[in-house]
């Protein structure tokens, strides 16, 4: 049963049983395998050498102007260096990795100076053009319809009362105190029907 436990457990997991002689040998083999795998992992990234300082010097100023392929190559090289022990990385590599990952470039770039002022003036220009177009349209528009005066709307109220329209809550109801159809300011002059006679 204990042999099956060794096979079922991960190769590096500690087992808390009192092993027999054969089990001790299996445990030593598993421990040796874990150590060898760890060393191989370290060797795989130990072959990656440090990136030269001239390549990383002034990366903050050069990054935006670099071709995309060169940016990708540099980032991949830094990524591979970051997979090793960080104590082995140079200060320049750490700074460059941080700046590439979190620096103010691309979508995190700072707005250019004067951008707020430019947005304000373009907005004011748009509002001004809209106001000019509004005034021009109002100058050449037709006069309001003849029904848009208080006298005509008062006559509409009288007509609705005579016809007993909406007798429960409307103009023709008992004790109605609202304005009814009157919504325009009173105008001087004859009613629309009177000027035609």
* First-last Cα distance: 117 Å
* Count of alpha/pi helices: 8
> What Rg is obtained from the alpha carbons, in whole angstroms?
43 Å
Give the low-pLDDT segments: 1-9, 41-47
How would you characterize the overall build of this protein?
By secondary structure, the chain is mainly alpha-helical. The chain has 8 helices and no strands. The model is unreliable at 1-9 and 41-47 (pLDDT under 50).
Summarize the structure.
54% of the residues lie in helices and 0% in strands. The N terminus is likely disordered. It starts with a helix and ends in a 35-residue tail after the last helix.
Topology:
Blueprint: H1 2-8, H2 21-46, H3 53-56, H4 59-62, H5 68-82, H6 91-102, H7 115-140, H8 150-162
Provide tags for this entry:
197 residues, elongated
